[in-house]
């Protein structure tokens, strides 16, 4: 700390002349010791104040340096932590980008596979369309042939229809087509008491064996007759035998 006293103004001591001292005959010489002491004391006070100020400033600078160093170290730790976080994010982004590239490659491979399948499907579709066109042409030709045959059959049927009616009337039998490929056979002139009474039965030839799903009236021997039909395949003979069986139902004997 600097002294609160005002420093003594320094004054240069007067020159001492040896010749003058000898000429004066004085017993002593005034060396101005008090002034010297005063100046020495003021110098020491200034020196102590300077040292104190330098020490204080040095301590303050050291404290400031320590504080600044601590702040810089804390800042460095923060920067290091942020750097580690940034590195972790960068690694995660690199991994994510690698994963996305892998997924993109897989997607591109899948798309290429689908495109290849689509090309194959289009080629197969073109083959199927050509095949369908071929079968359509065949069906059209077959339908035309069938229509011609149907026309011929209808013309023939029209021509022989009077003869068929004469035969049906004479035989007392009519054979008619039914849905699901069934055949209806109708008989009359079987019951002597009622010549117009009809006896009917249905044949189903669509399966591997002939079936008679219904008959009117019911014939007890129908099962045996059907077995014989399936053995020999003689449909017309079977119709004759069924007519005879119906006739026996109404025979007086």
From TrEMBL:
Chromosome segregation protein Spc25 C-terminal domain location is: 180-246
Subcellular location as annotated: Nucleus; Chromosome, Centromere, Kinetochore
Q: Which GO terms describe its cellular component?
A: Ndc80 complex; nucleus
Does GTP-binding show up as a keyword for this record?
A: no
Complex and partners: Component of the NDC80 complex.
Q: What does this protein do?
A: Acts as a component of the essential kinetochore-associated NDC80 complex, which is required for chromosome segregation and spindle checkpoint activity.
**Under what name is this protein listed?**
Kinetochore protein SPC25
């Amino acid at each position: 700390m600097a002294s609160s006293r005002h420093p003594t103004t320094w004054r240069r001591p007067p020159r001492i002349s040896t010749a003058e001292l000898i000429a004066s005959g004085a017993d002593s010489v005034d060396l101005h010791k008090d002034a010297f002491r005063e100046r020495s004391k003021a110098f020491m006070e200034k020196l102590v104040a300077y040292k104190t100020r330098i020490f204080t400033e040095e301590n303050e600078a050291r404290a400031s340096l320590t504080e600044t160093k601590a702040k810089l170290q804390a800042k460095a730790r923060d920067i290091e932590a942020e750097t580690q976080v940034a590195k972790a994010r960068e690694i995660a982004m690199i991994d994510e980008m690698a994963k996305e590239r892998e997924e993109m490659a897989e997607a591109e491979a899948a798309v290429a596979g689908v495109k290849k399948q689509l090309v194959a499907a289009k080629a197969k579709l073109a083959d199927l369309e050509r095949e369908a066109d071929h079968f359509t042409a065949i069906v059209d030709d077959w339908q035309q042939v069938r229509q011609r045959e149907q026309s011929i059959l209808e013309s023939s049927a029209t021509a022989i229809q009077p003869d068929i009616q004469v035969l049906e009337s004479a035989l007392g039998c009519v054979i008619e087509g039914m849905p699901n490929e069934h055949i209806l056979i109708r008989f009359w002139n079987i019951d002597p008491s009622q010549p117009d009474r009809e006896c009917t039965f249905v044949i189903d030839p669509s399966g591997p064996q002939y079936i008679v799903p219904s008959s009117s009236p019911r014939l007890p021997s129908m099962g045996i007759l059907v077995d014989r039909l399936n053995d020999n395949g003689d449909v017309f003979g079977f119709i004759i035998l069924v007519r005879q069986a119906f006739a026996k139902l109404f025979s007086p004997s």
